[in-house]
Amino acid sequence: MKTFKTHINELYKDYPGKGWVLGTKDEPKKLKDKDIIWRSKVHHYDNTVRSDNTRFIIVKNKGKFSMYAKSDKSGKIVFHFGDKPTLDDAKEFASIRKWQEKK
Question: Are the C-beta atoms of residues 68 and 56 closer than 8 Å to each other?
Fold first, then answer.
């Protein structure tokens, strides 16, 4: 039988989250709209980001797909969810978190 702590650790093992990037070295340098290969509709609130009016964006970066939350108001990156090896994996992560693609 698994202990509660072990069970919790297994639930969060696959989460690639890096965290807040405002004013840190983790913020991508000079991210342009053309660099964004997938963007979501505006979220009015997200539990992880804890910020109103953010978009989930996916950027191809050195062969990986980086996932960020971008403030729709300021245009700044506020949260880095981590990287995935393929675009499909990154889109799956977005759909699990209920971010919907902007058409």
Answer: yes
In SS3 terms, the chain reads as: CCCHHHHHHHHHCCCCCCEECCCCCCCCCCCCHHHEEEEECCECCCCCCCCCCEEEEEEEECCEEEEEEEECCCCCEEEEEEEECCHHHHHHHHHHCCCCECC
Give dist(CA 91, CA 103) in Å, integer: 14
The structure tokens listed for 50 are 């804890």
Q: Please tell me whether the overall predicted TM-score, pTM, comes out greater than 0.85 for this model.
A: no
Ranges of each domain in the chain: 16-96
**Contact (Cβ atoms closer than 8 angstroms) between residue 87 and residue 65:** yes
Rounded mean pLDDT for each run of 10 residues along the chain, 103 residues in total: 48 51 62 86 69 86 89 83 93 86 80
